[in-house]
Design a protein that fits this description.
The protein has about 240 residues and is of the alpha/beta class. Helices cover about 40% and strands about 25% of the residues.
């Protein structure tokens, strides 16, 4: 786990007079799952959105495999987003098309695969998420947990190097939470690097190699889950005792 695939250096971001990030430094290593914790309003999701250019940082640098990506054009960012994928909290499925078409959409947009090749890729992905029977269902026919898994499948279909998970277990019951975390673990086993933004500390402890805590605009903790559990830092202790 030595190769750095993503690095943020001294990232600052404000909305008007409200400073969200005040010098964030962060590295993500190849094959690593990194848990990003922080209270509501600390800018966890803003950080993910900044990485893929949905938000523009005020200053600092963001590198993907030594390439600076925070000043790219929209066309250049489109290519980066095939390698750094964003898994939205809601699943963000298209309501008017079925599960097959939702998952296939990035393949239509970014590849020249034939319909049969696309079909094969979608079926393989549905098998991975254990939802083969849902291939022709509409999003409205799926539970919240199933929608999130389909959304994750769509974010995976182009085989990105990094996936940014934005609260993938939020609002789910324990069984669906376990299903989602199990899927994330399967993807990790395939060598995927990820950042897991969450308030779900048990899931983060189960999945992540490293825990990072964002507080008052900066990273105030960056260590293993074991060190997280034993930390006497008052902010970390607040997470442990309150479950985020």
């Amino acid at each position: 786990m030595n190769e750095v695939v993503l690095e943020l250096k001294n990232v600052h971001k404000s909305f008007g007079k409200v400073a969200i990030h005040k010098g964030v430094d962060l590295k993500l290593y190849k094959g690593e799952s990194l848990g990003l914790l922080g209270g509501s309003g600390t800018g966890k999701s803003v950080l993910l959105r900044s990485i893929i250019g949905l938000e523009h940082i005020d200053s600092g640098d963001i590198f993907f495999k030594d390439k600076k990506i925070d000043q790219l054009s929209e066309d250049q960012l489109s290519k980066i987003r095939t390698q750094i994928s964003y898994s939205f909290q809601s699943g963000a499925l298209f309501d008017s098309i079925d599960v097959f078409e939702n998952i296939a959409y990035p393949l239509y947009e970014h590849t020249k695969l034939s319909y049969k090749e696309i079909e094969n890729e979608v079926v393989k992905m549905l098998r991975l998420i254990d939802l083969e029977s849902a291939i022709h269902k509409m999003p409205s026919d799926l539970s919240g947990g199933m929608q999130k898994r389909v959304g994750m499948a769509r974010s995976m279909i182009l085989n990105p190097e990094i996936v940014l998970y934005d609260e993938p277990t939020a609002g789910l019951d324990p069984i669906n939470t376990l299903n989602v975390v199990s899927l994330m673990d399967k993807l990790k086993e395939k060598g995927l690097s990820s950042i897991f933004v969450t308030h779900d500390i048990p899931s983060a402890m189960m999945l992540c190699d490293r825990i990072v805590v964002l507080d008052q605009g900066k990273i105030i903790f960056n260590n293993t889950p074991r060190h997280f559990q034993s930390s006497d830092d008052p902010v970390v202790q607040r997470f442990i005792t309150s479950k985020g």
